[in-house]
Structure formats: structure tokens, C-alpha cells
Specification:
Elements lengths: L10 H17 L5 H17 L1 H12 L3 H27 L2 E3 L9 E8 L2 E5 L7 H12 L3 E5 L5 H14 L5 E3 L4 H8 L5 E5 L2 H12 L5 E4 L5 E4 L5 H13 L11 E5 L3 H15 L16 H12 L4 E4 L3 E2 L4 E2 L2 E4 L6 H4 L6 E7 L2 H9 L6 E5 L3 H10 L4 E4 L20 E2 L5 H6 L1 E8 L15 H10 L1
Parallel strand pairs: 3-4, 3-6, 4-5, 6-7, 8-9, 8-15, 9-14, 13-14, 15-16
Antiparallel strand pairs: 1-2, 2-18, 7-17, 10-13, 11-12
Helix pairs in contact: 1-7, 2-4, 2-5, 2-6, 3-4, 3-6, 4-5, 9-10
Bound molecules: nicotinamide-adenine-dinucleotide (NAD).
């Protein structure tokens, strides 16, 4: 029995909600391949039939251009769900394995089973993708789920709350809208898995709450993702690809390049190339470009202005801000102070500090002296340099000679390491993360040798020592 004595009042309706989902799970209907496929197809239909409404909601919440709305939220999620749907039947099959010498005779297998009732908590920056992609994993694995969209993307949150019950099994999936009080009350419930995407700070809150129930967590967190530009990099391409990662959603991307470590000999040329790329991307007028997003709200706009004001470096590109329009230009700050907030906190906006390093080795040392990042980027034309960076650093993922794109491959698990997260998803790992792999050994009734049973004897131990 769960101790409910310390529960808040807000938790009471959620207790009933989770109980209802648990009843559905216990009924066993979420386990069948047909049910799972129906839910995944439901998500695909939801995305297809409501493309215009969801694109509008993304524009309302984030000023998101429709191309980015499709590439990073709607189309991205469709590709992920489609991949899971295609492979699901194979992933669900129990796998026969060799039982091992000491278990002979016998048959061994690994049986994937759903966990139960799961909780998926999403952030605001890719509000559709980051709720629906993990939710698809939970349903593909045969679980029930509570989906909690972000209150900071209210139009998307409202659209998802209205649409999801129309396309999914309402007795197996519930949407809870709200912010800190609602999430806190939800976390008082007992779940079988909590999948959280958001900040490292709130990740700690979630893990602490889950620990009370010994509930396992997946934490998809953030941090400062560095970009190394070696002297031998193609600077035209590097500038465009770094800017691509920083321009997307105005830098409000967990794997946006946070700062650049450029070898000193090419630092100034890289800044010039970035300036050219900013012009090119925005037709010379970023302020009025239809392809450039806005900062999500006033609070984050203020936070970013503070990072810029206290950077203690040289603004080489951009610098324009407009609070009324929640606009901040792509801004490159050369040589900010290392103890300034812009070099201490995750930026999560369109500000890009650039620091000079004497060598790639120095850049590796700089990165290793800081918390393990979610993503790491290296631009070089020498494979050995890239391999050295991969071998000598630790990060959730690496993309060589580009930014962001490693998130899109269904064969690459996506997740952090250390303070940038724990666990991973996408493709097969989306199924794995919501699945318990149950080990099963089946023994025949006969023979039943007495070797392992007491009374023990020296000859039995001798034999055992030979076998094991
Ligand atoms: P956040 O941590 O503030 O909020 C995330 C979710 O947690 C929201 O649904 C919110 O309602 C809830 N929440 C907020 N405070 C809470 C509290 N005290 N207790 C319980 N729940 C709480 O994050 P955000 O601002 O929405 O998103 C930005 C952060 O998310 C950045 O750090 C970014 O790097 C990270 N992020 C990571 C990934 C990834 O895949 N690793 C993807 C997107 C964003």
C-alpha cells in the first residue's frame, strides 16, 4: 500500500486518474500488437489531420516558421513514430538465448514486457515532438501513460490536450495540462517509469520525487554543448552549419551549439564567415525574416538580455534586442569572460560565444574541465582529429562537421550522460526504455540430479568448481 498521508490536495484527482489507467493496464488490453499499432497509427493520424492547427499553435507559442514546425516537430515525430510502427512486431518477439552450461538442460528466453503506467513530461521548445515521441515509445511498449505538455507553450498544450483523447485509447492515455503545482502533484503518484525532458535543475526534482517510489527515470536534460572548429575546417561550411544549429528555433534547442572553441589562427575568419551566413539566412534583415523564431516569453527574453549584458566580451555580430517583439538577433560574442553567466549557464537562445584556443588538445581540455555535455560538435577536414575528440571527451552524442542532425537518425540512441541526462530514446531505444526485458529459464522435470542440493560433499564442490 502507498502511504498517502503526505499527499497534497491537488494530488487527489491524480490518484484517481492513475488508478483508472492502472485498471486499464491490468485488463491486459494494452499488451497486444493490434492495440499498440492502433495507438501509433492514432498519433500519425493526429499529426496528419491537424497539421495546420498544430503549425499555427507552434507559430503562436514560438513564432516558429512552418518549415521548422514541420522539420523539427510534426515531420520529425511522424518519421519517429512511423519507424517504431514498422519495426514493432519484431521488437515485441521473445528472444531465445543459450541458457549456459550450468543451466542445461533447459530453454532460456528474454521476454519484453510493458512496465505499467508511465508519466511523460515535456518542455516547451519542441512541444509536439518532445511529448509525442516519448509517448509513442511508451505506447509501443504496451504501457498506459499520462502526458504532461509544457505550460510555457500554451497553444500547443491546449491543442494536444484536445486532440490526443480523440485519437488514442482514452482509458489508457491521459493528458494533464499545467505547470509546477500540477507536475508536483502528479509526481506524488506511483508510476512505473517517468520520462522527463527539461532542465537539469528540474531533472533533479523529478528524480528525487521518483526515488520515493523507486520509480526508474529517463532524464533528457540540457547543458552547454561545445563546438570545436579546427584550423583545417572548411570555414564556409562550418559557419553555415553552426549557424543552422543556432538559428533553428532562435537557439532554443537542447543540442544547439552553445559556444565555439576556435583555433586562434582561424577565429577571425570564422566570425566573418558567420556574419556572411547570418546575412544569407535572413535575406539581410533578420528582424523581418519569416524564417526566424521569437523567444518563448518575456522571462526568457530578460534572462538572455542579462547573459548578453554581463558577457564582458566583444559583440561581433548582431546584438539587437526588442522586448516587445521578444526578438533577439543572432549574436556572436567574442572572448566573453569565463566566469560570466553566458559561459556558466546553458544559453538556450541565439547568443553564440566564441573563444580562441591554441590547439584542438586545448579545446579537449576545456571541455573535459566542465560538466559532460548533451552534444559535442567538431569541424575538421582530418578524420584523425575527429576521432581524437570522440575518444578523449564524453558527451551524450557527437556530430562531426555538422550540428543537430545526429538527433534525426533512428539508429542512433538520443540522450545525455552525467548532468546532461540518463537513458536514451529514438528508434529501437524508444521501445527499450519503456520495456522490461524479463529473463526466463524453463527447466524440464527430468533429469533432476542431486548435485546442487544439500547435503553438500567435497566431491560435489570439486565438480562444481570444474563446471563454473
Ligand atoms: P523545465 O525543466 O523548466 O520544464 C520541463 C517540464 O517540467 C515542464 O513540463 C514543466 O511544467 C515541468 N516543471 C518545471 N518546473 C518544475 C518543478 N519544479 N517540478 C516539477 N515539474 C516542473 O524545462 P524547459 O524550460 O521547459 O525546457 C528547457 C530545458 O530543457 C533546457 O535545459 C533544455 O536543454 C532542456 N531540453 C532537453 C532536451 C533533451 O532532449 N535532452 C530537449 C529539449 C529541452
Amino acid at each position: 500500500m502507498t502511504d498517502t498521508s503526505e499527499r497534497t490536495d491537488a494530488a487527489v484527482p491524480f490518484a484517481e486518474l492513475v488508478e483508472g489507467l492502472r485498471d486499464t493496464f491490468k485488463s491486459g488490453r494494452t499488451r497486444s500488437l493490434d492495440w499498440r499499432r492502433e495507438q501509433l497509427k492514432g498519433i500519425l493520424r493526429l499529426l496528419e489531420e491537424n497539421d495546420a492547427e498544430l503549425t499555427r499553435a507552434l507559430a503562436e507559442d514560438l513564432g516558429r516558421p512552418s518549415t521548422e514546425a514541420y522539420a523539427a516537430d510534426l515531420g520529425f515525430t511522424k518519421a519517429e513514430v512511423g519507424y517504431v510502427l514498422k519495426h514493432l512486431a519484431g521488437w515485441m518477439k521473445p528472444k531465445r538465448v543459450m541458457p549456459g552450461l550450468t543451466s542445461l538442460p533447459g530453454r532460456a528466453k528474454i521476454v519484453p514486457e510493458p512496465l505499467g503506467v508511465t508519466l511523460v513530461i515535456a518542455p516547451w521548445n519542441y512541444p509536439i515532438q518532445l511529448l509525442l515521441a516519448p509517448l509513442a515509445g511508451a505506447l509501443a511498449a504496451g504501457n498506459c501513460a499520462v502526458a504532461k505538455p509544457s505550460e510555457l507553450a500554451p497553444a500547443c498544450s491546449a491543442a494536444l490536450a484536445r486532440l490526443l483523447p480523440r485519437y488514442l485509447d482514452e482509458e489508457a492515455v491521459a493528458v494533464v495540462e499545467g505547470g509546477v503545482p500540477e507536475t508536483t502533484a502528479l509526481l506524488e503518484q506511483t508510476f512505473d517509469h517517468v520520462f522527463f525532458t527539461g532542465s537539469t535543475r528540474v531533472g533533479q526534482v523529478v528524480m528525487e520525487a521518483a526515488a520515493k517510489h523507486l520509480t526508474p527515470v529517463t532524464l533528457e536534460l540540457g547543458g552547454k554543448s561545445p563546438t570545436i572548429v579546427a584550423a583545417d575546417a572548411d570555414l564556409d561550411v562550418a559557419a553555415r552549419r553552426i549557424l543552422f544549429g543556432k538559428h533553428l528555433n532562435a537557439g532554443q534547442t537542447c543540442i544547439a551549439p552553445d559556444y565555439v572553441l576556435a583555433e586562434a589562427s582561424i577565429r577571425d575568419r570564422l566570425v566573418d564567415k558567420l556574419a556572411e551566413a547570418v546575412e544569407e539566412f535572413n535575406g539581410g534583415d533578420q528582424r523581418h525574416s519569416p524564417d526566424y523564431s521569437r523567444i518563448v516569453n518575456e522571462g526568457h527574453h530578460r534572462r538572455l538580455c542579462h547573459l548578453l549584458d554581463t558577457a564582458d566580451g566583444t559583440v561581433a555580430i548582431g546584438g539587437e534586442v526588442d522586448a516587445d517583439d521578444r526578438y533577439i538577433a543572432t549574436t556572436v560574442v567574442v572572448d566573453p569572460a569565463l566566469d560570466a553567466p553566458i559561459m556558466q549557464e546553458e544559453i538556450f537562445g541565439p547568443l553564440l560565444p566564441i573563444l580562441s584556443v591554441g590547439s584542438v588538445d586545448e579545446a579537449i581540455g576545456f571541455i573535459n574541465a566542465r560538466p559532460k555535455p548533451l552534444a559535442l560538435y567538431v569541424f575538421t577536414s582530418d578524420d584523425r582529429t575527429a576521432e581524437k575528440v570522440i575518444a578523449q571527451t564524453s558527451s551524450g552524442g557527437v556530430c562531426v562537421n555538422h550540428t543537430i542532425l545526429h538527433i534525426g537518425s533512428p539508429n542512433l540512441p538520443f540522450g545525455g550522460v552525467g548532468p546532461s541526462g540518463m537513458g536514451a530514446y529514438h528508434g529501437r531505444t524508444s521501445f527499450d526504455v519503456f520495456t522490461h526485458y524479463k529473463s526466463v529459464l524453463a527447466k524440464p522435470i527430468k533429469p533432476d540430479p542431486k548435485l546442487m542440493y544439500p547435503p553438500y560433499a567435497a566431491w560435489k564442490e570439486k565438480l562444481m568448481r570444474k563446471a563454473m
